[in-house]
Write a structure and sequence with these properties.
Layout: E1 2-4, E2 15-18, E3 25-27, E4 41-48, E5 55-61, E6 69-71, H1 89-92, E7 98-101, H2 103-108, H3 118-122, E8 128-130, E9 138-140, E10 148-152, E11 155-156, E12 161-162, E13 167-168, E14 175-181, E15 195-201, E16 210-215, E17 219-229, E18 233-242, H4 244-248, E19 257-273, E20 276-291, E21 295-311, E22 316-334, E23 339-360, E24 363-383, E25 393-407, E26 412-426, E27 430-435, E28 438-444, E29 450-468, E30 471-482, E31 484-487, E32 498-501, E33 509-522, E34 527-544, E35 560-576, E36 581-595, E37 605-606, E38 613-622, E39 627-636, E40 640-641, E41 644-650, E42 653-658, E43 664-665, E44 669-679, E45 687-695, E46 705-710, E47 718-723, E48 729-737
Parallel strand pairs: 1-6, 10-15
Antiparallel strand pairs: 2-3, 2-4, 4-5, 7-14, 8-9, 10-11, 12-13, 14-15, 16-17, 16-48, 17-18, 18-19, 19-20, 20-21, 21-22, 22-23, 23-24, 24-25, 25-26, 26-29, 27-28, 29-30, 30-33, 31-32, 33-34, 34-35, 35-36, 36-37, 36-38, 38-39, 39-44, 40-43, 41-42, 44-45, 45-48, 46-47
Length: about 750
Amino acid sequence: MVKQKSTGESLIGVTVVVAEKHNIGVITNEYGFYSISLPQGNYTLRFSYVGYKQEIVPVNLTSNVTVSINMTDESKLHEVVISARKENDNLTKATMGTEVLNMKEVAKLPVIFGEKDLVKTIQLLPGVKSNGEGSNGFSVRGGATDQNLILLDEAPVYNASHLLGFFSSFNSDAIKDATIIKGNSPAQYGGRLSSVLDVKMKEGNSKDYQVSGGLGLISSRLTLEGPIQKDKSSFMISGRRTYADLLARLSDDMKDVKLYFYDLNAKANWAINSKNKLYFSGYFGKDVFGVSSLFGSDWGNATATLRWNSILNSRLFSNTSFIYSNYDFNVGFKTDASEMKFNSHIRDLNLKQDFTWYANAGNTVRAGFNIIHHTITPTKAGGTDIVSDKKSRKGLESAAYISNSWKASDRIDIDYGLRFSLYNLLGGDTYNIYKNNKLIDSIKLADGKFGESYYNLEPRVSASYRINNTAAVKIGYARNTQNLHLMSNSTGGSPTDAWIGNSYNIKPEVADQFSVGFSKNLKNNVYEVSAETYYKTMQNQIDYRDGADINTVPDIESELLFGKGRAYGVELLLKKKQGRLTGWIGYTLSKTERQINGINNNQWYNAKQDRTHDLSVVGVYTLSPRWTVSGTFIYNTGNAVTFPTGKYVLNDMVVYQYGARNADRMPATHRLDISFTYEKPSGKRWQGSWNFGLYNVYGRRNPFAITFKENKYNPQKIDAVQTSLFQWVPSVTYNFKF
């Protein structure tokens, strides 16, 4: 096992290399475990990890031996200058479209309201597109918002945003590691077409007690961690809350308004012995919006993960997880005469088993299975005059996989695997069957009965060929399937969007992605240049028919049409990883289209998330040991939308005539953000820093929405009215740790 010396946290992705055999090495897995097989002899192990002091360990190998080390964080060293050549992970790994986020860098980047944000940082990477100004929704390589698998300690998070998208659900103080995989995911991941965002929470300091937090203009956070039993068990608990509602109540006009969110992260672990460890982690987050007793709304996520790590023998590692996840939405209206409530939820119970077998120096095999029981309640109404007859639908989603990371030679690395996925409809509800949006039959499934079953084989393969010590080419193919679908009529999504599963009308979505890439390191790994191009085909894509009634229709499936899609593009990235100035420039040129009979005369049309150009420039510059300045600049083409092309009057009502689906464009978005961080001189225990930021430095009025209305002076004319949310947003945050 490899851990951080100061806290006892396990370290993910540490490179372990045998110095005498430069072609033999391994990466620690997501739990800090590694295994290497070698003949008898004397060897030297070299442990390398970005931001940590390199460790050299001699080993006299005459039989199986355990080598566990604690690595020192370079930021803890004083009056010592350390320089080291970083490992060529981008060249030696076969994985494609993958980025591991450095949480220390995330903390330095400027974001809206000064709240450091994991998802906002992801949106700055090539191939990942923000779904709108201030939004935490994102699309990856032409995928929709719901085609991203977001995991928090292995538990799926179905709505990863707060405050209508302006904050993410991830409190960065509680996060240890985050990885984004853009379509070419290993076989252990499944259930979504476009990407995986795998987020791991901190385990807690097993050496000493520690308190950290931050005070901002509209929110504050506090984290407490420490040992339960030193070096054997630890805990971490972290909370965050906005208090804009408390300030609003100072005004008589706003004293009855509730508008805030809060979240709570907690984790504990216990080392039973040297080979077995238990983890328990949980997350609870909620948004609340209401006006007196007349209107109230809340929505949020709850997750829990119980995990057991076990080293079965020197080559075999096991991880067993029991996972709970729930997302719900509630809204209510009340008058003197009546009351009405709406609610929906999706709830999962998940058993997951993973094995990692370090077969030999050239092969690492992973295999496992998971079984998820879904309970999905669509939006249903109830109240004084309404009794809803909608029931919860249940589904069973199962999968099994096997994969191998094969070091074929000194220059060639290949990852290949196969995933088998199965989705069963479960009884307890009536399923309607439609043809051309007309009801033709209904099937009532009794409780305990199985309905339609869908299964798919999902092959995955990626390979890397190192041209020399500084350059490599990569190629990959992956098939992904998706059995859950989000019904939304907006690009960014909203809390009221409802999830639905496969049915007799809705079949699993399927995507096949082909990608080719090139990576090169320059000037002793100071710079990294990469280019990837991809082509993705998609089956069973879902869209609404023209004129669909999605708000009051009894069955949303009657308004759906199905077809195919395609997405292709080029992603360029230039990254500077060392020196006083670090950061990256990312650019994406892409196209995303759908072809569905019944829409746009059955011709190809732009998907909602189609954007031609995306540019991001990110920089962090160390002015002095105390001062750091960072900035981001973004430019992107506007989203595809459908604008009216004319109007007519019917019964004294103006009715708009629309053109081809998504044939128009919102105006382009561009913005510069900047922030300064001041690290106060540290006391013996207390560490403090100030962060000053300005969002949208030059006051660009970026489009949030465009609406159309009659010109008040000339009813024959129509005015297009643009709504912009933020022109300038200053922020001040004080962060502390002791």
